[in-house]
Amino acid sequence: MDHDDAQPNAREARGRPDEESDTAEVPVPRMAGRRVRLRPVGPADFAFVATLETHPEVHFRWRHRGTTPSPERLLSSLWDGALVVLLAEHLEVGEPFALLAAYGADLRNGWCSFGVAAVPDLPAGPTPTLDAVVLFLDYLFALWPLRKVYAEAPGFAFAQYATAVPLLLEREGLLKAHDFYMGRHWDKHILSVSRDDWPTRRRPFLPLVTGDDALDLDVASDGDAAS
Q1: What is the CATH number of the domain that holds 36?
Q2: Which listed residue, 3, 160, 215, 218, has the most CB atoms within 10 A of its CB?
Q3: What one-character-per-residue DSSP string does 80-121 give?
């Protein structure tokens, strides 16, 4: 047999994977579930953002902690150090109810932090904020090579994470007497979820959040990513 005939066509061998990747259908991150939709902040949302961030139940517990930035700075500072900022909108009423931000990203080492602020007067029952957090963490793990996502909660604001711990997030550390508020120092809780654990942690919530019974997010583990 001719030696040349026994060799695969190098151009064809190189071309096939490229052709398959070019023609394969690539999904986009899921931005909506049964009750909640995530979307970027637009100019029409500035009044909502300002009202949310200056509400007494949020203003003293979230990022400003009682300081009073100018109206212009109140909005522009929202994107300082942020990887992504999204609004959560309740589909039934078509109005935003929460703001979610990922910030302080260290993509070299594969981590970031996230925070969420929701309107204080949500109706009783299963909270749509939990839906928003599930969709938001899906979004982060789908779009960036993050190994771990953190949340920091001072003791005076820990209640807003109570339904997420230990179901979605684990308590990883505690900074003793770290944050000063209302005349005393409070512990800060360090919460986290890893890429490896996220598919298992989100599974019980899928029927409620998305209406799906099976995992619909292909999250590669650290081992898969390194191989």
Answers
A1: 3.40.630.30
A2: 160
A3: TTEEEEEEEEETTTTEEEEEEEEEEEETTTTEEEEEEEE-TT
